[in-house]
Amino acid sequence: MDPKKVIICRCEDVTLEDVRRAIEQGYTSWDQIKRALRVGMGPCGGKTCRILVLRELAQKLGVSIDEVKTRPTVVRPPLRATPMKVFAKEGK
Question: Domains (ranges, CATH) in the chain?
Fold first, then answer.
């Protein structure tokens, strides 16, 4: 398995090699890796890549995946309220 060819995040085209390099550079949480590589920022919102990144992170750090999952993450709500009519077609 060539880490350069294994795609971890299809939305942002991030490879296993990219994730491993980020961990080696000192990124030790989902949020840090997300900011550095943009994993989880595509259309799927991390539904497919988050667990893959967390598994790799746990393995490289020598901890359980549960320990990596329970680290606090940052949740950022929208900057301002958006009316539902913006998302729905008007008149329906």
Answer: 7-86 (1.10.10.1100)
